[in-house]
Amino acid sequence: MQGLFPSLEIIVLAAGQGRRMASSLPKVLHTLAGRPLLAHVLDTAAALAPRAIHVVYGHGGERVREAFADAGVDWVVQPAQKGTGDAVRCALPHLDDRSLALVLLGDVPLIGRDTLKALCERASDGAALLTFEAAHENQYGRIVRDARGGVARIVEWRDATPDERRIREANSGVLAAPVARLRHWIPRLTTANAQGELYLTDIVALAVADGVAVATVSPARATEVEGVNSRADLALLERAYQEERAQALMASGAQLMDPRRIDVRGALTTGRDVLIDVNCVFEGQVEIGEGARIGPHCVIRDSRIASGARIEAHCVLDGAEVGSGCVVGPFARLRPGTVLGPRARVGNFVEVKASRVGTDSKINHLSYVGDAVIGAGVNIGAGVITCNYDGARKHRTVIGDGAFIGSDTQLVAPVEVGAGATVGAGTTLTKDAPAGELTLSRVGQKTVSGWRRPEK
Ligand code: UD1
Ligand code: CA
Fold it and tell me: Which of 25, 162, 260, 354 is 20 to 30 A from 93 via CA?
């Protein structure tokens, strides 16, 4: 394709209102797999290394522009939504005559790069359409072919006769054509149709009348051409997408207890023999090493879990690094900046934030550990709290190797516990605890003999 055209330019149509979404959010900002529909399309567009990406947005679509302010695309406003042909008309002044134009739809998010490459290659001389087999009830435009099987025109569902509606070959809306040819065809479009719009699809009949060949390409996967027009469409496409992700994970050696009960909203990579139990959600970049096991109902975002680690049921991890052989949870929360060394243990109802926990150290029950550096082989008892925040600033707690922190201790930061130190249960530690010694703060215990409980 590079040889035939000095450059490729992509037009993304995103000005439609999406009324059927019944939402105040522009349609292309609705999310699939955790990202706006338009983000999926722009990623695929960028992967084709075009000279430019022109996004046609509508009146009131300022939110779209704002959401993609850093996307490096050319914004084209379409003042009134007068149809897909009008949208392309608005973009044309921004395009170079020598380019090949590829038209994508902002509400068809899963279009694939390889399919688009094939389409562009076929458009070298005339025009190429991405078409597919649709079920009868799906109201896509239909491809009308002539007696010799060549493409004759596209008829929109609303304009089609009952016979035309029976045609199985449907228009995906994605097409490629040389810019110079589009300049010729677009001004000749008319609004003589059921919707009174300028249909981009009518360029096909114009091409045929000009004796220009119109090629068709079909997508590698059915989901590539599925458009989102309603929330029901979006939900179906989300499930289809997740199913594909689940299949790919299993192909790479992960065991999914139920491939229909996993959600990947970002990039999840798994080593061999990773086991993922039901109802886990993965967001952002997540890496799971060989043989690690993720229990049911976990939410894991932007985290790395090393080989052989075990995340038990109901854990929430965000920005955490879990070392090999660690055991986390059930019911643990690891917040950003948590780094667990090999074989560390973080048990139930423990929250860890911006802290390093050394090899073989244990925080097994009901603790809050924030802004701490914990050495190796440390035992943190139940209910230990780092008091890291004075209302204005955060302070650090440092605990040396082999230290033992008794249950219900408050470590009032900044504070340091030396290596091998023992802190007695119930201590409020406000000064450093020396290495190797027992430190405790405790009110003396007394018994009031003969005391009686008040009676009602
Ligand atoms: C369009 C095609 C139809 C195809 C279907 C596939 C036309 C006339 N019809 O129909 O053949 O089967 O897509 O999904 O092209 N848009 C604008 N400005 C406008 C109108 C639309 O930017 O004035 C954008 C929309 O935001 C959307 C895309 O173009 O991303 C398609 O528009 P839509 O109204 O959804 O077209 P369909 O009726 O689905
Ligand atoms: Ca549509």
Answer: 25
